[in-house]
Amino acid sequence: AAVAFELDADFDVEYHDALPSTNDRARELAADGASDVAVIADRQTGGRGRRGREWSSPSGGVWMSLVLRPDVPPARVPLLTLAAAVAVTDAAREAGVDAAIKWPNDVIVPDAGDDSGRGGAKLCGVLTEMEGEASRVSWVVVGIGANVDVDPDELAGDATSVRAEVGDVPRRAFVQRVLERFDELRSDPAGIVDAWRERAATLGERVRVETTDGDIEGDAVDVTEYGALVVDTEDGERVVHAGDCQHLRTT
Ligand code: BTN
């Protein structure tokens, strides 16, 4: 059953003990015309990651999807994904976790993980979905999967959690901070890329990006005003859009 309550941010919260996927529930609400709702579940039975991957969602995580109706063209939607990554990074840092952002939208702990040198363990991923016209979106769902009060052994891949890094953290306070920061960032979209840049683990690194069009290798030098990654390659600068990135590794 859903429980609705209000937080001190401009979102109404719809809380569930379990859902297949908060993104799916958020999409339903969005299609019904809702806006500024945060759908949260304690666990998901069919959590979805980027590129059709599964997302492990045991009890104790922050599995949350934001229903938004921004008055913007689709090209600006990646900024909302970056804003979510910034908001989670800040909430994690305030909880004492040494978090940083891996382009395009992963929050990682650079010094955690399996010592392979592949650049840290994952703390959070973001899955953004939208519907609308070329000139203007109708709705956007920003799905945030933050490993908060969970055991990394229950998660797939090279993952960590707030609990594993610093011990217990009150989940409700964490959610509140993420929503407050997200609110601040979306009200000042011009500041999002700068905030992202300041927290980026990717910039200045040598990277290989697997794209739908082949691999791009070089130095990650910047992000554009819409959040695309600029890679300095042997053949000059290439701009990679988040939607075209299948995988990024630092080399
Ligand atoms: C990724 O692949 O890195 C993105 C993971 C996104 C997971 C979150 S959890 C809340 C929301 N509901 C889902 O089914 N997925 C997103």
UniProtKB/TrEMBL annotation:
Residue ranges of every copy of the BPL/LPL catalytic domain listed in the record: 1-190
Enzyme Commission code: 6.3.4.15
Keywords, alphabetical: ATP-binding, Ligase, Nucleotide-binding
Ligase recorded as keyword: yes
UniProt GO molecular function: ATP binding; biotin--[biotin carboxyl-carrier protein] ligase activity
Protein name as it appears in the record: Biotin--[acetyl-CoA-carboxylase] ligase
Species name: Halobacterium litoreum
Residues of the full protein shown: 65 to 315 of 315
